[in-house]
Amino acid sequence: MSILKPDFIKPVAIGAVIFAALAFLPSLVDSYYMSLAISVVSFAVLATAWSMFSGPTRYISLATVVFFGIGAYTVAVLGEVLAFPLVLLCAGLAGTVVALLVGFSTLRLAGVYFVIFTFGLTELVRQVVSWYEVNVTREMGRYVFLDITQNDIYWQLLALFAVLLLTGFVLGRSRLGFALRIIGEDETVAKHCGIDVTRVKVALFVLSALFMTLTGAIIAPRWTYIDPVIAFNPMLSFQVVIMALLGGPRRLLGPLLGVIPLTLLFEVLTASFPNHFSILLGCVFMVIVYLLPGGVVGLYEKYRAPKKRTLSTDTETTRKSEEKTA
């Protein structure tokens, strides 16, 4: 794909203008709305990264919080030892190594088996980190004191989201993206087409995990204290899945349509019903699955398709009528 083609340059240019405008947000709002903006952007990265893998392959992964927690804990351990850019590099390497191990060992699984494994992986990692903290360091949790402001976190997450969208845009127009779409439709057909299914899925799984890990690392300084329960809270994985499914995981910007309303909804539910949040989250999930199985984007495309066919038929009829008249 040539980067000089108009269909590539125009969307990138529009995106650059939008992100440049969003960079001025800290100077326009107070600390509360900045905190809300950080939540929106962080969930946008996580949901889009999740959809980058699960959208085309149709694998439902509940391992989001594993990589998010690895990133956060890397900052807690190395934040006061190394410069922050080096900490991000270490977090990215750690997330990549774990994703490679998980990918090559589990992506031959499919359906409910993959879902169960990724959910179990979350608990396994949390228990291993807890055991290490209790038996090796002799303390539970770590304090994070870094000279990184709320605005810095927002700008870093915004830059990461921009890179993620650009990566997804390029990927969707590449051979790898085409291979993934074939795999999502039918893995058997993909194998007969000569596609190395396992390697393609692992490559995308690792790429998705890298962005999740960096998100956890960037947002870690927002907390002053991190322990395994906070860093590896499985609720995060379910929130990300719900957001992606609401927006539509098969389109690049689809998850964003679920992130914005649900982040606001979760903010209200957490403040108003802190003891019943899990129950309400489950209700939201069931409503989305039953009423919007294809997400907002899928619903839009469903009602747009008949109009397109009607318009195409009318155009063809008009053309034939003109030919007969002539």
UniProtKB/TrEMBL annotation:
InterPro entries: ABC_transp_permease, LivM-like. This is Branched-chain amino acid ABC transporter permease. Its main location: membrane. The chain crosses the membrane at residues 7-26, 32-52, 59-76, 82-104, 111-133, 153-172, 202-223, 229-246, 253-273, 279-300. It comes from Thalassospira aquimaris. It comes from the Bacteria. The keyword Transmembrane applies. The keyword Transmembrane helix applies. It is a multi-pass membrane protein. CDD domains: TM_PBP1_LivM_like. Keywords: Cell membrane, Membrane, Transmembrane, Transmembrane helix.
